[in-house]
Amino acid sequence: MPTSLHKTRKQISKKRGGEVNALHAKSRDSKRLRMAHARDLRLEKLANARAKKEEPIVDRIEYFYSQLKEKDVSQLELPEVQSLIHNFVHQYDEELDAIKKARRPGRPASTREDLLKRKIDTLEDEYEKGFLIPNVLDEENGKKLLGYEGSWAYIATISWSKVSKAGKVSNGDFPSKGIM
């Protein structure tokens, strides 16, 4: 996809009859190039922030997609779902233990260790209240999930549900604002 800087550079070179080699520092054309570059940087920053916010949603979709693929089914029972959620919540336990063992006694926790603790605690709290997952308890929705090819638009068509640690299942909304 061409960027606005590329397009602006192309327009200016057409106007000047070839290459853009020498521009005065305060000319209109150089101002257009600076503004186009600033716009590209701003859009890239927003895209990176959006991708970071959507990452937990995509991780959950991919986790449950891989579990359905692995078991070759389109529907799971509640005990299976709860064990999968437990595994998802505690997927960072080994890494956290390794970081704790690597730390010398008397030293404060590393940033990575604090981040992993916070992430696990957040996931545990969410699991207590109701963990948001793609609805794999419904066969029709499970088939939809098996058709997932990696696009964000397809994720919006999948229905979601909340499963609590106590076993309560309720309908959930698509997490458009991100999960964490």
UniProtKB/TrEMBL annotation:
GO terms for cellular component: nucleus. InterPro entries: Tma16 (IPR021346), Tma16_sf (IPR038356). Gene3D superfamilies: Translation machinery-associated protein 16-like. Residues 1-33 are annotated as: Disordered. Residues 1-15 have a biased composition (Basic residues). Pfam families: Tma16. Belongs to the TMA16 family. This is Translation machinery-associated protein 16. It comes from Cordyceps fumosorosea (strain ARSEF 2679).
